[in-house]
Task: inverse folding
């Protein structure tokens, strides 16, 4: 049993209570372990080195494939230079010699060798050659990542006890992987409650705390930990009384959840019978049965970019079709709104693969994101549109365009969709605009004129309207949905949709907030789409409300 009880407060970012042991994930530089090896271990170290070099060459080859059709040859030249360095027999020969002669582990030998070479490059007069220092360092990093195991990616520790992960931050990709591996919860030092990692955690029902600043200092690896995602508290090394108290608390939560379950089969209506459709926000196909279980009336937002967390490359048309068709079939005739790949901004997945460079710009939230990227790479967009059209043979498919700021973006998607539909001889499917940028609100009437529906993304709309980074805990207090500017925008959006006769949904996190259900219903929203775990509480809450429609603004 570890040390004295310690506890701290944090933002209760994803509800639920978890008890388990802590696994800390360290960030920053890849550690270079230094160790002398026994003569019998030398062969194994050399084998590790060679496997890591081969894996690094395979990485470079895979990255190269995605860059072949780029106009700029610069990224290709960099990769080619790195490939040559990796293939250079001299590099592996020298590191091998150090392992054999100095009897040190592969990481330490590699580190010394790379340091030595980059020191030589640094002294060179020629600017071009001096710049190759960065390449050799990159090469060292690539090999070191593989030596660190799993391409440097942490994975969940095996054992009988549930694991609670503690780290500076988690990427959306890691949250998905850890959930699949069976993690019980996660605690992070950084991050606001609307980062994508947390949205994913909520969707998957993985309890999470964010902004737990001192957790990294106070929780030791292997400590027993309680994560209270209801009240925003973590406790390390809890005493027996606290454990017993939490066992009771956890049981009570289950009772409430069971009671709530009767609402799974009830219609989504107010006490006086006004229907407000409740749909699910999904990130992975595994969530489809959960959505069915709570009686979701369709999928209001399928974040297709999370498909990319399951592979290290862009899935081809066939793979995408299989995935989308599986979701559509799983929803058995109910509508599924697939959002086109929303890469960029806070979602780095395959940014580099799709665009061929990793230059995010000084401010990724205002840079290449969502539809802007897709229109730069129309072949990526066409592949997705074709896959979605084919999936529409299996049920009701709708397409949603992210980050729209101008009508031409919607018009271009429609044009390409029409082309793909003709090629495939499949009728086009409805196309909706995601309203999540103030510019889209101001031209909402024009957008409504060329869209089949609207879906309001309040996570970004609040961020861009209030100039508050949704992922920055320093300004989390200013991230205020009730700001009059936001409310006014919501009313403008509904009015524009009404005027053009199209339905309007909300799919940002605000849709799940029961303090807002009444207001959103009365403003005139037709549908609220939210993480699966919020559907029953919102439906229950709705059943007590009365419909008092607001008059839309003139
Ligand atoms: C939003 O911005 O509200 C939204 C639903 O999209 P995302 O959170 O994926 O940016
Ligand atoms: Mg968004």
Result:
């Amino acid at each position: 049993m570890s040390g004295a009880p310690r506890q701290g407060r944090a933002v209760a970012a994803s509800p639920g209570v978890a008890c388990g042991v802590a696994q800390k994930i360290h960030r920053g530089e890849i550690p270079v372990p230094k160790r002398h090896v026994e003569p019998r271990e030398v062969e194994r170290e050399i084998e590790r080195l060679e496997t890591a070099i081969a894996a690094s060459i395979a990485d470079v080859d895979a990255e190269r494939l995605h860059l072949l059709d780029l106009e700029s040859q610069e990224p290709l030249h960099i990769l080619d230079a790195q490939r040559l360095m990796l293939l250079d027999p001299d590099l592996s020969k020298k590191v091998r010699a150090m392992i054999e002669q100095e009897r040190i582990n592969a990481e330490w030998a590699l580190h010394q060798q790379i340091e030595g070479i980059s020191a030589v490059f640094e002294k060179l007069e020629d600017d071009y050659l001096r710049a190759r220092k960065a390449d050799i360092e990159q090469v060292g990093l690539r090999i070191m990542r593989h030596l660190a195991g799993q391409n440097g990616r942490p994975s969940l520790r095996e054992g009988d006890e549930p694991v609670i992960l503690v780290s500076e931050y988690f990427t959306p990709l890691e949250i998905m992987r850890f959930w699949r591996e069976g993690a019980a919860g996660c605690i992070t030092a950084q991050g606001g409650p609307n980062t994508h990692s947390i949205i994913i955690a909520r969707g998957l029902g993985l309890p999470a705390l964010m902004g737990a600043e001192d957790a990294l200092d106070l929780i030791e690896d292997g400590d027993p930990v309680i994560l209270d995602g209801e009240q925003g508290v973590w406790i390390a090394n809890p005493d027996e009384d606290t454990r017993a108290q939490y066992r009771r608390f956890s049981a009570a939560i289950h009772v409430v959840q069971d009671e709530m379950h009767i609402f799974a089969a009830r219609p989504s209506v107010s006490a006086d019978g006004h229907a407000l459709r409740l749909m699910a926000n999904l990130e992975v196909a595994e969530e489809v049965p959960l959505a069915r279980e709570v009686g979701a009336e369709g999928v209001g937002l399928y974040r297709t970019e999370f498909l990319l967390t399951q592979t290290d490359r862009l899935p081809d048309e066939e793979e995408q079709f299989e995935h989308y068709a599986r979701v559509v079939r799983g929803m058995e005739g109910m509508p599924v709104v697939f959002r086109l790949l929303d890469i960029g901004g806070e979602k780095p997945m395959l940014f580099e693969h799709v665009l061929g460079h990793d230059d995010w710009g000084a401010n990724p939230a205002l840079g290449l994101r969502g539809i802007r990227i897709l229109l730069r790479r129309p072949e990526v967009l066409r592949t997705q549109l074709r896959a979605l059209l084919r999936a529409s043979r299996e049920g009701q498919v709708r397409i949603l365009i992210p980050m729209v700021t101008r009508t031409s973006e919607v018009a271009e998607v429609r044009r390409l969709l029409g082309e793909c539909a003709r090629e495939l001889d499949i009728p086009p499917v409805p196309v909706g605009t995601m309203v999540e940028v103030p510019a889209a609100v101001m031209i909402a009437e024009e957008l409504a004129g060329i869209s089949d529906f609207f879906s309001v993304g309040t996570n970004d709309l609040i961020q861009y309207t209030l100039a508050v980074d949704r992922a920055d805990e320093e300004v989390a207090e200013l991230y205020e949905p009730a700001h009059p500017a936001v409310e006014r925008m919501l009313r403008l959006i509904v009015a524009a949709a009404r005027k053009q006769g199209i339905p309007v949904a909300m799919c940002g996190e605000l849709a799940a907030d029961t303090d807002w259900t009444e207001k959103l219903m009365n403003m005139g929203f037709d549908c609220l789409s939210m993480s699966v775990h919020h559907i029953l509480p919102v439906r229950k809450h709705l059943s007590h409300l009365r419909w008092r429609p607001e008059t839309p603004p003139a």
The pocket of magnesium ion (ligand 2) is lined by residues 402, 436, 457, 459-460 (CB under 6 Å). Residues 42-67 form the longest helix (26 residues). The first strand starts at residue 6 and ends at 9.
